[in-house]
Amino acid sequence: MIYEVCWRHFYEDDKVLAFRDINLQAPVHVLVIPKFRDGLTQLSKAEERHREILGQLLYVARIVAEKEGILKNGYRVVVNDGVDGCQSVYHLHLHVLGGRQMKWPPG
């Protein structure tokens, strides 16, 4: 696993790990990552073989939203991709953000 997770994880199954971000951007800010990189460093590098894990990541984002009580009012799922997309960690991960009104445009 690419991340050294020293704080308690939020969700885990055989393929995905979710944990609270240490740099909160909203009252709820959870990262969802695949346990194995398998060449999936960013969304633009996704291949046919990554379809299942990409779906699992989004499904876990929904589980996180439900556990955090933000499913009903809404939440945002963010994937930063590449330099212009502000990606700072080159291991694909989703940010689940909520607990407040999100603004638009986001960036």
Account of the protein in words:
The chain has 107 residues and is α+β, with helices and mostly antiparallel strands. It has a single domain, classed as HIT family, subunit A. It is 16% helix and 23% strand. The chain has one helix spanning 51-67; strands at residues 9-12, 16-20, 28-34, 75-78, 94-98. A hairpin with a 3-residue loop joins strand 1 and strand 2. The protein is globular, with a radius of gyration of 13 Å.
Number of helices: 1
Q: Name the CATH class.
A: Alpha Beta
Cα Rg: 13 Å
**SS class:** alpha+beta
Number of strands: 5
Quick description:
It comes from Aquilegia coerulea. The chain has 107 residues and is of the alpha+beta class.
Question: What distinguishing features does this structure have?
Answer:
107 residues; alpha+beta; HIT family, subunit A; 5-stranded antiparallel β-sheet; 1 helix; 23% strand; adenylylsulfatase activity; HIT domain-containing protein
